[in-house]
Design brief:
- The chain has 3 helices and 2 strands, in the order ββααα.
- The chain has a two-stranded antiparallel sheet with strand order 1-2.
- 51% of the residues lie in helices and 5% in strands.
- It starts with 6 loop residues before the first strand and ends with a helix.
- The chain is mainly alpha-helical and 73 residues long.
- The chain has a single domain, classed as Arc Repressor Mutant, subunit A, CATH 1.10.10.
Length: 73
């Protein structure tokens, strides 16, 4: 998955945190909800501007960042 289709970083939005395109919802927000056992379906129900594909993009973004940390060591 090319998460760059769904994730953007703009210095004037949420202090430059990575966010879902067209929203002020950060990748951190989505990951935190998932970590707190909120299902993808419930997130989409609560935030209809999101899709499961966008949530998966957040996971792909986090996976790539974690991988780059491991390979930089």
């Amino acid at each position: 998955m090319d998460y760059r289709l769904f994730i953007e970083i703009q210095s004037d939005k949420r202090f430059g945190k990575p966010c879902i395109v067209g929203t002020r919802i950060s990748v951190y927000d989505v990951l935190n909800w998932l970590a707190n056992d909120i299902s993808k379906e419930q997130i989409v129900a609560d935030f209809p501007e999101l899709t499961t594909q966008m949530i998966n993009a957040c996971l792909a973004f986090a996976a790539e960042k974690e991988h780059s940390l491991r390979t930089a060591s």
